[in-house]
Automatic annotation (TrEMBL):
This is ROK family transcriptional regulator. InterPro entries: ATPase_NBD, ROK, ROK_cs. The lineage of its organism: Bacteria, Bacillati, Actinomycetota, Actinomycetes, Kitasatosporales. It comes from Streptomyces graminofaciens. Pfam families: ROK. Belongs to the ROK (NagC/XylR) family.
Length: 318
């Protein structure tokens, strides 16, 4: 019989993905549904139940003893509830209770999606071998998670390491979170594009105004596009350096759609980091691209579930 087999869910505003994952991080079975993000909470839950139904119908399901969930947040692992910003029908939604109800009462480990991706990068990806790391997702929003002392540090509610809402500009624009001048308000994909457009950058004939289009323009030397990425890199550097100074990480891993921009982002990020990470114990901090890709959420949710069960040898989470 298959051992160390866990079920994993990766829940976001676009898709609900599920998988059966073994103790080496290999995905054996997959299922997926679009997220009905604009529908009521029960409709969203039905999509989750359909994904779980596919998984429970497989022969391998009998070996599953725990379920890991990485969800868009905020999440509250202490109550088993989720309130994803991009799924309005779920506010303090009892996701853990509902998942247990349709899976025969199996134990469930709930963490935020940024924390899940951190678990994956530490177990299988760019942060492997590092005991103290920050992993970030820079996309439509900016999220993240921490590994401290060789173990995933999710915090009491499962949200620790949410670097997107560190303030890096005291007089900056108001953020939807209620604060102002947050990393996310400067470095997220939509805000990179917004700043470029406000500065006079214009898209090509295809009309693409995404951050990826701005990145392409920056690679071609457009000064406004370059400046928008440099500003994003400065905000990320300030947030990374603040985190490193506080908890002594030695590596920061940057993934997500914006992270795929390559040296357009990473070159100014490394330069800016030298200006912010100045104390002796953070000068050796390195910044690298993420490695895990689109499966990171599933693999990370599985890693957290394995750690909960106490059998995640090599997963480095807990």
């Amino acid at each position: 019989m298959q051992t160390d087999l866990v079920a994993a869910l990766d829940i976001g505003g676009t898709k609900i993905a599920g998988a059966l994952v073994d103790g080496h991080g290999r995905i054996l079975v997959r299922a997926q549904r679009p997220t009905p993000a604009r529908e009521d909470g029960d409709t969203v839950m039905r999509a989750v139940e359909e994904v779980l139904a596919e998984l429970t119908a497989t022969p391998q399901w009998s070996a599953v003893t725990v379920i890991g969930i990485g969800s868009a947040g905020p999440v509250d692992a202490s109550t088993g509830t989720v309130s994803p910003v991009n799924v309005p029908g779920w506010r303090a939604f009892p996701l853990v209770e509902r998942v247990r109800a349709v899976t025969g009462g199996l134990p469930v480990e709930l963490i935020g999606d940024g924390v899940a991706i951190t678990a994956a990068e530490h177990w299988q990806g760019a942060a492997r071998g590092h005991d103290n790391a920050l992993c970030m997702v820079v996309s439509t929003g900016v999220g993240g998670g921490l590994v401290l002392g060789g173990r995933l540090h999710a915090g009491p509610t499962g949200n620790a390491g949410h670097i997107g809402h560190i303030c890096v500009d005291l007089d900056g624009d108001p953020c939807p979170c209620g604060s102002r001048g947050c990393v996310e308000g400067i470095a997220s994909g939509p805000n990179i594009a917004r700043r470029a457009l406000a500065g006079g950058w214009r898209p090509g004939p295809d009309g693409d105004t995404s951050a990826a289009a701005v990145a392409a323009a920056a690679r071609a030397g457009d000064p406004v596009a370059v400046a928008s990425f440099e500003r994003a890199a400065q905000a990320l550097a300030a947030g990374i350096a603040a985190t490193a100074t506080l908890v002594e990480i030695d590596i920061a891993v940057v993934g997500g759609g914006v992270g795929k921009a390559g040296e357009v982002l990473f070159a100014p990020l490394r330069t800016a980091l030298k200006s912010y990470a100045t104390l002796s114990f953070v000068r050796g901090l390195t910044v690298v691209p993420a490695e895990m890709g689109t499966d990171a959420g599933l693999v990370g949710a599985a890693a957290a579930a394995l750690a909960r069960r106490g059998s995640a040898s090599g997963a480095g989470v807990g």
